Give the backbone structure.
Amino acid sequence: MNIPALELDQIWIKFSPARQAEVVAVEGASLSVAENEFVSLIGPSGCGKSTLLRAAAGLEQPNRGEIRVDGRRMDQPGADRGMVFQAYTLFPWLNVRENIRFSLKKSQLTAAEKEERVNRYIHLIGLDGFENSFPNQLSGGMRQRVAIARALVYQPRILLMDEPFGALDAQTRMLMQELLLEVWESQRSTVLFVTHDVEEAILLSDRVFVMTARPGRIKAVVEINLPRPRSLVTLESSAEFNAYKRQLLDLVREEARLSFAERGLE
Amino acid sequence: MENTPIAKEMTFKEPRHQRLLELRSEIPARIYWGAGAAFFALVLILWLLLTSFGLVPALFLPGPQAVWREFIRQVSTGILLQDASASLYRIMLGWIISTLFAVPIGIMMGNFKFFEGMLEPFIDLMRYMPAVAFVPLTILWVGVGDSQKILILFIGTFFQEVLMIMDNVKGVPRELIEVSSTFGLSRFEILRDVILRYAMPGIWDTFRITLGWAWTYLVVAELVAANVGLGYRIMRAQRFLQTESIILGIIVIGLMGLVTDMLFKLAYRRMFRWMDRKG
């Protein structure tokens, strides 16, 4: 019996803002990610998918349920779970090299080993020549590449990504997806990826979890049986890809319509 | 590259002449600075005209020449240097003590809701109490020496400064703190290596602004029981109707405030280059 790398077991998360009605964001959601598996979590906006991911990172405390990494219960952020956010989170006073090295602060590696590894990841994300640039000299896509390298370089057990390409334009987004695929296929790590982009989820994932409208539950799990290495260009014309797309879009749209009808335009 | 033959042969049109008062648009630096210098000159000329034709009695407003003579007199007798150094000493000490308290307390308030909840209502109350009203109390508490002046400057500065530093610290994006916690950093390490680093330019600006306020409290601080200082000189001149001495005092305080302000701005540009690096 294999223990999953990451397990979210019956997670409930409630918010009780001051002087406002309590909101149940996540209602008994469970999912697991196996070793070296790429799993996406999709759902209509406001369904609690980001909240669930934040709980996995230890940034949100579930009111019920357990988060387990390799079978061990976790309730705090730790270097075993790396996170990439949608918002730019680079340190503006550090250049590219220093930003990536920052996440190795608590690592036991020697200075030379750190240097070697930072260089390797700079190369991997294609930013050779930009080592000494500062974040506000970089484009949005470059910044997110640095953020990804910074989350990968200390080799966390699990990589959590919260719509990391959400703020990028369509062209950059596509290139970033291909870059992430390339990196993941060469490194093989365990990823939980939140997105609202169905194509992105199919392209990247081994399995896709679909959440219901708020309060968020897991509605369906779809296994993506497409051969790797994948590329958006070849997939777009494939019948299987479009079948997955149809299936997932139907699932998400159903929920989006429900939440739209219930809450109106927020 | 810049000297390709093609570039040499091509003719370039000058960009369309920009109107001076275009909304939010840049203007040439020489016009920008020239306007500032011209306005100073204008004020000086108006002052000269008003006073030299007897439009305003010299008792109310002496001319620039009279103020200049007073300046020369105070420099040659050494009074000005004495006053300025006494005032500078008080201001720096009052402001440094205020800052020594405001920085740690502001950081605590900005990061921990507990300290914010505990201290903010009290500080909000205190900062609306006029520093000048504390003059009699401070004399009662610490006597009439330098420490009384420093205490007034402290009261005038601290309660504003601590709230501004709290806000500087609160301005650090939440994601930056969260991402640092996923690197396994402790709360203390995040505070030191992320929050303070990010908030530093803002805090430095707070230093500059509050030091400017300390200068404006100088006269209040030297209102009573002083025998040296720029503020004291102004109060004394009022008693003897030496208007030119009052004006000189005001100008000197203004200039010294301006100089400290510029020093802080200069240091800011040196220290926080990363703030304005553009691609």
